Every structure is written in C-alpha cells, then in structure tokens.
Amino acid sequence: GNSVTQMEGPVTLSEEAFLTINCTYTATGYPSLFWYVQYPGEGLQLLLKATKADDKGSNKGFEATYRKETTSFHLEKGSVQVSDSAVYFCALNPGGSEKLVFGKGTKLTVNP
Amino acid sequence: GAGVSQTPSNKVTEKGKYVELRCDPISGHTALYWYRQSLGQGPEFLIYFQGTGAADDSGLPNDRFFAVRPEGSVSTLKIQRTERGDSAVYLCASSPNPGTGQETQYFGPGTRLLVL
C-alpha cells in the first residue's frame, strides 16, 4: 500500500538553526511528493512539491529533494525563523487518483 | 480571491444524531476533496469529486458517511447515526485542474466535529 512516515515531533530549535524533518514513503508506481504546512490558527497550505525522481522543490528557504533510491523527501532549511513555527506534513499522491496520503505531521517550534 | 470555506467551524452533537458539513470551494475549481483529521494524525482521505460525480470514494469508512456535490460547486458531507469515534476535524480542499496527480490542493479551515 501507500504510506508516509515522518520523524516524530515535536522539534524545538533556536532561531537561525538548521532544520531537517525526515520523510520516507512507500508507494506503488511513481508518486508525486509534497510538503504541506499548517501555521497556528490557519488551514493547510502547500509549501513545496516534486513530481519526479531527483526533482528539488523549494519555497521560502525550504528545500526537499525527491530521492527514489532511498524513497525519501526530507525537508531542510538552513536558518529557521520564529515565523516558521508550524506543523509540517509530508504527503504523496500515488497516481491513478487525486487523493493525498499524509504523514502524521511534525510540530516545529522555533524560539528567539 | 476567496479561499475554501467550510461551515460550521465547530459542531457538537450527540451520539446517534445526523450531521451535515458544508464546503464551498474556490470558484472555478472542478475538483473537491474531503479529508478527516483525528488528533495527532495527518489528514485521511475520504472522497474526491470531479464535477458533480464522486471519482473516488474509497476512503469513506462505512455507509454512515455520504457526500454530494449536486451542482459541481458546493459539497455536503453527511454523517448518519454519529458515533464518538467520528469526532475529528473534517477538511475540505479544492483544485483547479486535476488529472495529473501533481495538483496543489487548497484547503479550508476545517469543521471540528465533537460527538458526545
């Protein structure tokens, strides 16, 4: 079946620290991969995506590379800010339907 | 422009009652999705509409759950004989041009359902 595994949270960092949130997936076929973010009091919104192997998605200083050989899509940011505090969800679209399969989410708190 | 809206934002009901949750997608978006998010979990797919028809309803947990989108815009998720385990946040999303598996889905704020 199709599934997404994210690193357990919560993650607490100081401002300007380096961030990595691990995400691995299991999928039949060739999925598209996504990171969605939920800021406090707001709805889920797309952060970045990659649709084929070796693609790199990037947005707002965040990056993730679609690694088919390791079935991973780890989220990274070189220098986090307090405003990055949110819950981050890794997701995949397995193809054949438009549904998304989400991980459990990782809560990030960035302290000044 | 306006985003996806959902009403009510909160709903408290008693076990065994019937509830309806409404979703108003972004104007012009042909695809509409329902997900359910339990505490501490990621969203779980329920059903996807392309236009008026349900293109994939494989995520509906049982026959107490039903959704409609009669005019290809607003959708209603209906839950009969609610159970305490139905308590969750119900999320709606829409997208403009589905079909590739690469589409960004735009999410609403959710309806928080509590079944007592």
Brief write-up:
By secondary structure, chain A is mostly beta strands. Chain A has strands at 3-6, 11-14, 19-21, 23-26, 32-38, 45-50, 56-59, 62-65, 75-77, 86-93, 101-102, 106-111.
Q: What does this entry look like structurally?
A:
In chain A, 0% of the residues lie in helices and 49% in strands. With 112 residues, chain A is an all-beta fold. In chain A, strands 2, 5, 6, 10, 11 and 12 form a 6-stranded mixed sheet that branches. The radius of gyration of chain A is 13 Å and the shape is globular. The N and C termini of chain A lie far apart (41 Å). In chain A, 39% of the residues are buried. Chain B is mainly beta and 116 residues long. In chain B, the strands form 2 sheets. In chain B, strands 2, 4, 5, 6, 9, 10 and 11 form a 7-stranded mixed sheet that branches. Chain B has a 4-stranded antiparallel sheet with strand order 1-3-8-7, with no helix packed on it. The N and C termini of chain B lie far apart (37 Å). Classes of the chains: A mainly beta (112), B mainly beta (116). The interface between A and B is medium-sized, with 26 and 32 residues.
What is the oligomer described by this structure? heterodimer
Number of helices of chain A: 0
Rg for CA atoms of chain B: 13 Å
How does the major sheet of chain A shape up?
6 strands, mixed
- The backbone outline of chain A, from C-alpha atoms, is globular
Mean pLDDT of chain A: 94
State the largest interface: A-B, 26 and 32 residues
Strand percent estimate of chain B: over 45%
Give the SSE map:
The complex is a heterodimer of chains A (112) and B (116).
Chain A (H helix, E strand, L loop, with lengths): L2 E4 L4 E4 L4 E3 L1 E4 L5 E7 L6 E6 L5 E4 L2 E4 L9 E3 L8 E8 L7 E2 L3 E6 L1
Parallel strand pairs in A: 2-12
Antiparallel strand pairs in A: 1-4, 3-9, 5-6, 5-10, 7-8, 8-9, 10-11, 10-12
Chain B lengths: L4 E3 L2 E4 L5 E6 L6 E7 L6 E7 L2 E4 L8 E4 L6 E5 L8 E8 L10 E2 L3 E5 L1
Parallel strand pairs in B: 2-11
Antiparallel strand pairs in B: 1-3, 3-8, 4-5, 4-9, 5-6, 7-8, 9-10, 9-11
